[in-house]
Amino acid sequence: MTDKVLGVILGGGQGSRLSPLTQTRSKPAVPIAGKYRLVDIPISNCLNSGIHRMFVLTQFNSASLNKHIKNTYHFSHFSTAFVDILAAEQTVQNSGWFQGTADAVRQCMHHIVSHEFDYILILSGDQLYQMDFKDMIEKHIEANAEITIATIPVTAKDATDFGILKADEENMITSFIEKPKTGLDEWISDTGEEMQSEGRNFLASMGIYVFNRQYLINILNENEEEKDFGKEILPRAIEQSRVLSYQYEGYWTDIGNISSFFEANLGLTDELPKFNMFDSNHTIFTRARMLPPSKISGTTLEKTIIAEGCIIQASRVEHAVLGIRSRIGKHTVITNAYIMGSDRYQTLEEIRSETDAGHSLIGIGDRCYINNAIIDKNCSIGNDVKINGGPHLEDGDFELYAVKDGIVVIKKGAVLPSGTVI
């Protein structure tokens, strides 16, 4: 696979549905599971599948993503492996930004084709899943396909949010519709007994594609007006070419909005989570930080994930993810929350001077109550702060926080004075 396949990971657009988490960072750079970033998921899936050469295409708020990749993915000097950034750039041929997924690949093609490969694997940078791409590529070769689209069975309720496909007996895709709102019955597929028993009768595109090298070059050159794979390139290709459906039945979620992001993170605390971080065959790679072990004093913990370097004195933490360097004060109760942690520790001198000045320290203070919330990185939350998210709160965007689907999101670096109530 190392010689045959090149991976291309799309950094995504503005990510407005994940705002305010994407106000200062791109979607793939959003922290997940306390110690990783979203981009680590597709990169790790590639590395675990024997694909060691990857480009990450970036455009919006890309500084933190670029820094993370530079600091994380280092390979031997004697290896051909790499994870390189391709940022949107002005050239003589093109003076504009990426206009869509296909346009992003088209604009970077002169960099991509300078490498030897037979197949190109195109991935999204904002999905949570564990997949063996070797099997997908082998099926692509066996079927003599020109494109393979990874598909996942979904229910009728979810089908309206995806591109839905129909395939023949050989799993060759015959038709495609983007986010159908009516006439769903025409798009029911034979997804297998197990999937049908769960009501998952529709084949949805996962936004994961394998292209033959020359075929991709040709199809991108044929019509430069086509900017997007899902909406334009693939529907045309299905009519003209051999496009294979590769059905995947494992856990997969698209981190499209705050509620799906929140649900995916808290789902990791389940006794048997759908996304298994403890599978040695699917290691998740990330930046190696030299952090001390976490220290916990007098805290009752239930269904909680704790990353490295935390100092926790809370009375109770339940159904929560605590990110790196999280600091939580005494008599605090945290439920249904993702605390992202911080990028640094305050020194003893800083703590003393901030305390003397009556300022909140980085982390969460004493006697706080936090429920149904995401606390972004480097927040300073004072003592006796109460944050209680839920359906009783109206959605809105405020100076220090936002409310999305009842989830309170404290913005990165926000300072909440002692006694604040949300």
UniProtKB/TrEMBL annotation:
Residues 7-270 form the Nucleotidyl transferase domain. The keyword rRNA processing does not apply. Keywords: ATP-binding, Carbohydrate metabolism, Glycogen metabolism, Nucleotide-binding, Nucleotidyltransferase, Transferase. It is an enzyme of class 2 (transferase). Pfam families: LbH_GLGC, NTP_transferase. Its EC number is 2.7.7.27. It comes from the Bacteria. The keyword Transferase applies. GO terms for molecular function: glucose-1-phosphate adenylyltransferase activity. Belongs to the bacterial/plant glucose-1-phosphate adenylyltransferase family. This is Glucose-1-phosphate adenylyltransferase. It comes from Pedobacter fastidiosus.
